[in-house]
Amino acid sequence: MSHDLAALAPHVDATWRDDLVVELRLHDVPGDAIGAALAEVEAHCLDSGQSAQEAFGDARAYGAALAAAAGRRDDEPVPLRTVVPAAVETLGIVATTSGAVAWLRGEPSEVHLAALVVLLAVGAGMVAITRWPTPVLRYLLEGSVWRIVLASLLVPGTSVAAALLAPEVAVELPAAPLAVLGLALLVTGTVLTLRSRARLHQDPVRSPTATARPGRDRGSCGRSTSRTCGARGW
């Protein structure tokens, strides 16, 4: 990211520049509007001789102010379709692993209650992270390191507790069909993930002088024009 942004704003401190871009991305600001904001900062720093920190203050706060002026929020849930690829991949991994191991042993695949509980816990975590990514990331990264530690222990802790409280087998499934189904789900989830990532790459940070996409006029967005950006509605 830094290499491409350096070409847009070579006189802006790299750390400040990256922090601004990350903050604007977290608020779902389009790439061409981010490029316009960087161009404004670059022009001001070049003309005044000030650093971006001196002229605009903290990069995160400045980015949040620009996004707020444009009516962009970071707590809006993303569409449910973004959760589907990760959920399908996870189910595929679990089904393929369980089915393949049991198949090699010549036994049916035993699904324990503990495994179902863990799967539900993982699924809930994935939905939360994928559906509300920015609030979750802010909660984990801007607080104590213990938040991250406790979050990382959630799944194994749930697994141990479920295994102790519910060790019995919930259901037995034929191993071969389960492995084949899991593999199909894994491939499907991978394809969906790659397609969703391809869509993300279609909105790069770019210079405001680049050719605009049809039907999208983002305009410029600097310190002196934040109200204009809000009126244009990034």
Structural commentary:
By secondary structure, this protein is mostly helical. The chain has 2 domains: 1-70; 80-200, no CATH class. The protein has 11 helices and 2 strands. The chain has a two-stranded antiparallel ribbon. Helix 5 (59-69) packs across helix 11. The longest helix has 26 residues, at 175-200. It is elongated.
Number of domains: 2
Number of helices: 11
How far from one another are the termini?
Answer: 21 Å
Helical proportion? 55-70%
Runs with pLDDT <50, length 5+?
211-233
What's this entry about, in short?
The protein is mostly helical and 234 residues long. The chain has helices at residues 2-8, 14-26, 31-48, 52-56, 59-69, 84-105, 113-131, 133-141, 145-165, 175-200, 226-232, and strands spanning 109-112, 169-173.
Comma- or semicolon-separated keywords:
disordered C terminus; 2 strands; single chain; mainly alpha; 234 residues; two-stranded antiparallel ribbon
Annotate the secondary structure layout.
Blueprint: H1 2-8, H2 14-26, H3 31-48, H4 52-56, H5 59-69, H6 84-105, E1 109-112, H7 113-131, H8 133-141, H9 145-165, E2 169-173, H10 175-200, H11 226-232
Antiparallel strand pairs: 1-2
Helix pairs in contact: 2-5, 5-11, 6-7, 6-10, 7-8, 7-9
